Request: fold
Amino acid sequence: MYRTHTCGELRLANAGTEVKLAGWVQTVRKFGSITFVDLRDRYGITQLYFNESLNPRLDETPIGREYVIQVSGKVIERTNRNGKIPTGDIEIEVSDFAIMNIASTPPFTIEDNTDGGEDLRMKYRYLDLRRPVLKRNLELRYKVNRSVRNYLDTQGFWDIETPFLIKSTPEGARDFVVPSRMNAGQFYALPQSPQTFKQLLMVSGYDRYYQIVKCFRDEDLRADRQPEFTQIDCEMSFVEQEDILQTFEGLFKAVFKDVKGIEMTESFPRMTWDDSMWHYGNDKPDLRFEMKLQNLKVSGKVYCEVLNGSEFKVFNEAETVLAIAVKGASEYTRKQLDELTEWVKRPQIGMSGVVNVKCNVDGTYKSSVDKFFNEDQLKSIAAFCGAGAGDLILILAGAETRTRKAMSELRLEMGNRLGLRNPDHYTPLWVIDFPLFEHDEEENRWVARHHPFTSPKPEQIELMGNPERYGEIKANAYDIVLNGTEIGGGSIRIFQRDLQEKMFAALGMSKEEAQEKFGFLLGAFEYGAPPHGGIAFGFDRLCALLGGQETIRDFMAFPKNNAGRDVMLDAPSAIDDKQMQELNLRSTL
Ligand code: ASP
Reply:
């Protein structure tokens, strides 16, 4: 028997017991003739005490960091207790030990505060994963997984696997492709999501499907994106949007309760996409704080009267003028305001400056545009923005889309600066009534905002023949948003062949192309497709949020780096000529 207990298990109540432990050596500390070793495993750390009688053996076979050892000994009370770890009241007085495997000196310290840089840790990910922080993250991930499965089981969902080697499904990203040896010159695609399969399962009558499943998207990577990631993918039949929102709000609440011990009793607020854009400038509002966007002028229409009579060219010439009222920030210094100006000028934000109005505590107003607005006018602007004494109003002006986006970023930035985005405070909501189409400016064509299987609002179906009005059509689509991050989205699907064909046509697909790409789905819709809808959650992102962290990478056992590489495996990599030949591939490099 290697061990009687784990390294996280023993307490004072076990004092006097003879035990066997096995694990990795975290540290070796020699004090004169005695030696202390911290022994680590998945469960925790236990201190070992080697008295002087073991010195000859320790001299003969010294113990080093990350060696795998096994010890026998007695649990004794520690004189010098460590309140920071659960086993801190005891130690093991070692009577015998064996080295099971030696280890090279690790390239970085295996502790939460490690000295290893990102690349080094990625290269030795198996060592990185020994660090308690990562262990906690993976434990949390497992708990979320269990909780999801338990809840969906109580709701009658079945976990059904779908293939990875498929034909491409358009979800808006590039496909990863896999050459087929047996079908020369042909390729499979890896699924961007199991979208069409889950819909086919509904046609087959498998109401209430789910999968916690890998999805693959060949996108340019950002901090919180990975080429392969995991979704909680779900689909239901004979449902309306309301059924889906109820079912998955339940899932969300169950996860919060199981994983965080948080009871969410209230129903999640719902906000239309239009409202979200109007009040927050984006479709994933962070509701941990107010600071709504104030729409002084939008697409040429003035809402704040004062703007009409002014000589201020910047506002007069701008398509849109937006403001936020920052509570309690009227005492922002010149330096802080200059900093904000620099911030909005960054290329990612792309504005030329920010106008400020200080609503001083003594009731006076001071503004960077005093030349154009008198005190009364500033007061009117403040009233329009709901700003009171002590608040600071920040105003951006420019083209509608850019200004709205910039203001939404500035709002979040001010939320950060004012400490209003506490990671332990959770504010979920549903964003509903998304537009069905989105205009792709680069390609100058309409694309599906969610995906082409999303149904339009029934009363707007007739607009589908009229490209001029595509922008008006709303979809039966919804997102679940938490703390400014979209963590899930889905839709009620189209389930009639003719409507699906209309949708493909609206997206500029010819009949032949639609048949070639989606003949299987169109065909299935002729054999009794039920009304259905579903949703998918970003599992990695949900875990990161529950762990109060930003990057999903830290919640995956073996992630890729920012360039999409696995630096441990050194993948992707070239394959040899023989493999290339077998696959009928020729490199042009
Ligand atoms: N397949 C969709 C996605 O990955 C989710 C859904 O509509 O269920 O975003």
Remarks:
- The mean pLDDT is 95.
- Residues 171, 193, 195, 489-491, 534-536 surround aspartic acid (CB under 6 Å).
- The chain has 15 helices and 23 strands.
